[in-house]
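Async update (no meeting this week)

Hi team, since we skipped the sync, here's where things stand on the single-chain job. The sequence we agreed to prioritize is pasted below, unchanged from the tracker. I ran it this morning and attached the output directly underneath so nobody has to dig for it. Comments welcome in thread, and please keep replies under the output.
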Amino acid sequence: MDALQMLNIQLPDRSVTARISSSPIATDPTVFTGYVTFFSSGFVEELRAASDDEWPGIQILLSSDECKNAPSRGVGHP
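Output:
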């Protein structure tokens, strides 16, 4: 969420979506791996990011627009 809040500060006229995904690894289903992918919110449909059927495991989509009113956690500061 910090990255999306920082994007709102640096690029207030752009909307970016983060896809957070997690799924078990093939060699040991008790171990999970995860990824975060950022892309322009204008391409959500084109990338089929909104389709639960396309991607296995856990998928969360969060847009920078959704983070505009979120409480600040000191974005940009350690």
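Quick observations from my side:
The longest strand covers residues 28-40.
Residues 2-67 form one domain.
Reply here if anything looks off.
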